Amino acid sequence: MNTSSELERILNNALEGKAPNSQECIFMLDLPETSLEAGLIRAVADSISRKRFQNEAIILGQIGIEIDSCPGGCKFCSFAEGHTKFSPSHMSDSALLDSAINFNSGNDVFAIFLMAMHNFNFDRLLNSINLLKTNLENCPNLVINIGDITKDQANELKNAGISGAYHVCRLREGIDTALDPEDRIKSIKAIKEAGLDWYYCCEPIGPEHSPAELVEQLFIGIEYGCFQHATMRRIYLPDSPLAEFGQITNLRLGQITAVVALASIACKETKNIAVHEPNLIGLSSGANVVYAECGANPRDTETETANNRGMDIANCKKMLCDAGFSNLLLAGSRRKTLAQSYKS
User: Is residue 248 within 8 Å of 268, Cβ to Cβ?
Assistant: First the structure.
């Protein structure tokens, strides 16, 4: 097999538990996505992750609880002020509880995420958390995906029963968004200091992002110690300012997922790797986590993403079965056999 000695060295080191450094990650991301070398990277990352995570998978359920014209101005988001087509709305308590019950009905999810806008009502969020903690039978972990927060807010969320928070200093933050990268990092530090699980992601990836950009951004997750690392490709939104760039393939996303998984060997805090949106290539390239989604979705043009882009729990389970995972990891370190009981 004719492959470069440099790649063989990097992958052999990874198999022995030594993570690639930033320059080695750039080297791997410079390779064509359709090359033999890229295929080897994905295969090695998959093998390492399956051993690292005991071939266990995780399903997360995200509920978008509100829609508004967001001053964050993200050029890749369907809610951004200036190009959004949505009218403001907020999910009712009964609809939120029904959505959470639906996600949790089969006892398959590790956590339920509550996603709000960058500017959000903190008291309303606390009420939503209490609603689920009080009324959701066998309540799984609860995680938030919201805008920037202070140390006091992070501590209050922890005391309210939140176990983690998704927060990212994204690709070209402050350029493709109206947000300050330093504020994003401050929020990440607040999440970590409060003792919450920190969910991170290399996102939102487009064809214009260079390997060096991707590596610089993904290493933030490793530097600060993320509980979950992940990748997410930017979805083509026809009316968005970045529409002209299009989107990357799932094959390229799988290559980036593999590099994230290999780089994360250096981060002992990382307990799982996700790929957005769920796909089989990513799940055979080092990822072991998929998201089901309902409610609002910044990658969608429909008010209810469950009717369009968002996957449900049944399809998440089917995809994980097809990817060869043996068990689901649940809250409290419980496990459940991922039976191949679906109909082909």
Answer: no
Distance CA 319, CA 146 (A): 28
Q: What is the pLDDT of residue 95?
A: 97
Continuous segment of H or E residues that includes residue 76: none
Angle subtended by helix axes 211-224 and 22-29, to nearest 10? 140
Contact 137, 129 (CB under 8 A): no
Mean confidence (pLDDT) of the chain: 95
DSSP 3-state of 37 = helix
Q: What pTM value is reported for the model?
A: 0.96
pLDDT mean over 11-29: 98
Inter-CA distances, 223 with 81, 155, 165, 254, 268, Å: 32, 22, 17, 22, 11
What pLDDT sits at residue 343?
A: 47
What does each C-alpha distance from 140 to 124, 164, 183, 332, 341 come to in angstroms?
Answer: 20, 12, 30, 8, 23
- Establish whether the linkage from the previous residue to 277 is cis, with ω within 30° of 0: yes
The radius of gyration of the chain's CA atoms, rounded to the nearest angstrom, is 19
pLDDT, residue 1, reads 65
